[in-house]
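Q: Can someone sanity-check these two? First one:
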Amino acid sequence: CSSDLTLMAYSASSKLSLKVKEKCHISPTPPLPLGDSHSLPLTFLDIPWLLFPPSQPLFFFQLPSTSSPSFFASTVVPKIKASLSSALEYFAPFAARLAASEDSNKIKFVLDETASFSVPLTTAECDDGQFEYLCGDYCQKNANDLHQLVPNLQSLRTSCGLDHLSPLLAIQITYFPKGHGISIGVAHHRVVSDERTFNNFMHSWASFCKHGKLPPGLQPTFDRALILDPNGLEPILLNQFWESEPGSIIPTPATMGLGLVRSTFVMGPTHIAKAKQWILAQCEKKNRTYPVLLSPYVVTCAFVWACLVKAQLESPAQTRIHKGPTYFGFIAGGITRLGYRVPVNYFGNCVGFGRAIAKREELLSEDGILVAADAIGQTIKKLDRDVLGEAGNWISDWEPIVGSDLHVNIVGSPKVDLYEVDFGWGKPKKIEENSIDVMRGISLTESREMKGGIEIGMALPKSTMDAFSCRFTQGLLDFSL
């Protein structure tokens, strides 16, 4: 199969020439406590994320063609530092540390107003003329290249318990003089926030940088009484966390990105509409029951799941054939599913876990997309009825998914508008989610160019990526027939 999606050759030896210019720490100004105290407890919706690897979104921005290293050092960096400090005043938990109570029955964010109450920030310069390459969509990029542009964070779960010294957020700004662009690499522990809260933080930071003020409606509320726990899930999930082995969910960071290439694929609204029509037509033709839900999210996920399973079978990188159930893990928003009001500016995690199940041999069949769509749709409908119904099993259910080559997990959400984040240089030229390497996940974001479209970020062995590209391209053609 010949795919026009693989436009640029992959180089296994590719490595960016990066020079670190400065390392510093940014604190909120003025440092404010969380509500009426200097601590903020975790809720049961936060606890499962203690075991997950950090999120590592990477934003690329185009600067004016007149930009220079002196402009970056004297104008861009000071504005980013000052605006980050201002944003942290309102989003203080990003600058906090974690601490457990003496009896280990509670974990909380702690602000002690010491040197540890800060966010590490690195500035760097990349002399390689690879800015356009790194921002590309339909090309294969060495996954290791992008990892040089984001900071690393330590695991929060250690052999001694909980790491109470590690930061929860870190930033790296890299300037590309030959491409007149910058990247802002962010690493943050998912226990701090879901995609909604992180999106609010990024928009607030950018607004302080561009306008010098907080956007209307984005000042967060930290009221933990908003999250109800009538089923007593907090002690159940907390006990599972303490009983877990360090690294039980988090794969080994040393292996992330090795031998992997990255590509971005786009499902535009027209593609999604045609795929939905194709699915309905196939159900009619085969006398199958229609899937219970065919939203743009379900259609996109079903198509990607079926393509990936078949690509893995065709790839030499697949060393064994897996039979039995295959899982598709994803995040379901809780704001609209909990049955009571939670404001959109609530700070913290307010999401549930979904796990669709399908037999691998059925996904490999000619009805694979139909099988995937039905499994994902049924799972979402189940979450609509009771998003917390299986919450007591969230940690154990996700252990076999994260970091697995056999199962799929979705990172990110196409419902947040990160492509509208504007620090004063226009919206991002490209957004990548680096953590999909270590999580063996798939990232979904809104499309930058097509309203209603979805960007799909993949990190796979090259042979698997080639096979996936062929499957994806051919699938779009089939939908149009």
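And here is the second, same format, sequence then tokens:
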Amino acid sequence: VATGVQYALVAQMPLLVAVLMGVVTGVFGGVMRDIACNEMPTAFADHRPYAVCAFFGGWVYVAVQALNAPAWLVLLASAGVTTGLRLLALRFDWRVPGWRA
């Protein structure tokens, strides 16, 4: 997530675009991993809030960077929030609504 946001900001993209690029980087990296392992991508199958966690982590990156924090702290804060939310989602079985067939 942080890498996608960082590269988009370096390319002078608007903040929302940068955060969405971070979401795409984070979520679709996992999708590509699952496809390479010949498995159904979990991001599409289990209704866990992967993208929501990545979205918040991306905004944390933008906010901490706006405080002129060192690069390592920006990365740590973004990764920490993204991972922390993901772990909370697993622990408390948070889910997002799915499409009805």
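A (reply): Looked at the second one. The chain has a mean pLDDT of 95. The radius of gyration is 14 Å.
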